[in-house]
Amino acid sequence: MNTFLPLFTKRLPFILPFILAGCTTFSSDGGFSAVEQTAGQHLNKDLIWQRSNSDKVSAAQRVGELLGSPLSADDAVQIALLNNRGLQATFFKLGIAESDVVQAGRLPNPGFSFSRTHQGGEVEISRSIVVNIARLIMMPATIQIERRRFQQTQREVTIQMLLLAAEARKAYYTAVAADQTVLYMQQVKQAADAGAELARRMLQAGNFNKLQQAREQSFYAEATLNLVRAEQMKTRSREKLTRLMGLSDTTYALPSRLPDLPKTPDEQINMEQLAMSQRLDIEEAILNTEQVAKNLGLTKATRFINVLNVGAIHNSFNDKSNENGVEVSLELPLFDWGDAKVTKAESIYMQAVNRAEEVAVNARSQVREAYAVYRANFDIAKHYQDEIVPLNTRVSKENLLRYNGMLIGVFDLLADARSQINSVNGAIEAYRDFWMAKTDLELSLIGQPGMTSMGNKNTSSGEE
Question: Cα–Cα distance between 184 and 206 in angstroms, integer?
């Protein structure tokens, strides 16, 4: 053992630079600041990665404050971003990816072997330290690859965060519209109850025939069924919103009606250019292409090296003589010249380039489509607001005046109320569809999360 220590001391100046180069450490925020910045820039919302009890308490306090009054759409989104446990689980992908970066910067453990053999009267003692030189040589490239993976993970987490925000906002509008529909269908049910009861009494008095009474009873049955369906939709939509917000019950309050339409729609000015500059799926596609390009150059440079180990050898013999040296093993390309690996890497790179171009083409198309849907829904809701609902309201007022003047009967008035059911329900749905289309348009300017899985698969393939 004493003869081995001087040998290790002589090798220390050679090993020390690798030790100093391998001091990769964890960041203070775990890469969360990039996701947090996107939430503030595009959503104007706060994020808390709940890694400690104080973080959990802070988030719970904020959620409690927001639940103290009827929720707005922004409140629902903020609660979802703070309280959704699935999103919190997604945040820990950052910790996993950063751990891979740090691990890539750590030196491989050296191997030590000791053997003592004898043959007849001769005794041979062998000691050696083996260090994976290939891993040391590849360490800078490996660190760079893991850092790019970490950046990809940041974009994936950001996209999932944006998707949750959009889903929560759309679920909010659906839930409010469902509440509004239930309130209206309750009014229709009350009118149907009154009509059915009046028809029954008039039939008993002999002032109504069975056909007229059956019509009123049929309207009552349909109104009852529509109310049940509306209440079912209310329950489903509220439960979905509750799940997205990560709440344990549905006791929170929502407003009684959807927000008013804006006076004018958003104009389609530079939307495609804006999407090209900030969509996360485009950034990820570009990053993936760059990484595959790096891997292509790496494959060309190292296609002959599969296992490269270097070891310090110190052998002692019974005649007190020593044998010192270095043993290196290298794979020689006698049969496999590596051309298949290079061809595969080049094919993977061109595959990544074409998929990046596909993402860009699809992004522009999605923005145009989202805006067309948004504008159409605005026009429809505006038509209900300015034409259909006011006209039906005017007809109702005129019929009420005629009823007060005894020009029409109560059943004519009820028939007019029945004719308004479709227009009122249509108006509620048109308002809901507009706000949901606006949410989809805003998401299309930032990124579509359905385009990220293939890039990760290609990246991993390119590293083989």
Answer: 33
Q: What distance in Å separates the CA atoms of residue 197 and residue 411, rounded to the nearest whole number?
A: 12
Contacts of residue 100, Cβ cutoff 8 Å, sequence gap at least 6:
146, 149, 150
Token digits for 212? 């007229």
Closest CA to 155 of 444, 453, 459, 365: 453
Q: Cα–chain-centroid distance for residue 448?
A: 9
User: Are residues 79 and 32 part of one domain?
Assistant: yes
Structurally, the chain folds into a number of domains equal to: 2
Question: Is 94:160 a contact under the CB 8 Å cutoff?
Answer: no
β-strand partners of 302: none
- Per DSSP, 246 falls in state T
The domain that contains 275 carries what CATH number? Answer: 1.20.1600.10
Nearest to 417 by CA among 96, 189, 214, 167: 189
pTM assigned to the model:
0.76
The sign of the torsion formed by the CA atoms of 233, 239, 242, 244 equals negative
Q: For helices 85-104 and 73-83, what crossing angle results, to 10°?
A: 50
Task: Tell me which residue range forms the domain holding 352.
Answer: 260-303+339-464
- How many residues comprise the chain? 464
Q: What is the mean pLDDT of each run of 10 residues along the chain (464 residues)?
A: 45 48 70 90 92 93 94 96 96 89 78 74 74 71 81 88 95 96 87 73 69 73 88 96 94 93 89 87 83 70 45 54 55 65 82 89 91 95 89 68 56 65 88 95 79 39 40
Handedness of CA 367, 373, 375, 377 (dihedral sign): negative
- For residue 414, CA distances in Å to 199, 214, 427 come to 11, 15, 20
Query: Distance from first CA to last CA of the chain, Å, rounded?
Result: 41
Per-residue burial over 355-376, b = 16 or more CB atoms within 10 Å of its CB, e = otherwise: bbeebbeebbebbeebbebbbe
Residue ending a domain, choose from 317, 337, 357: 337
Say how far apart CA 259 and CA 172 lie, in whole Å.
Answer: 11
Q: Cα dihedral sign for 7, 11, 13, 19?
A: negative
**From CA 174, how far away is CA 243, in angstroms rounded?**
14
What's the burial of 154, exposed, middle or buried (CB within 10 Å: 0-12/13-18/19+)?
Answer: buried
449 secondary structure, DSSP code = G
Considering the domain architecture, whether residues 298 and 320 belong to the same structural domain is answered as: no
Residue 397 neighbours by CB under 8 Å, 6+ apart:
none
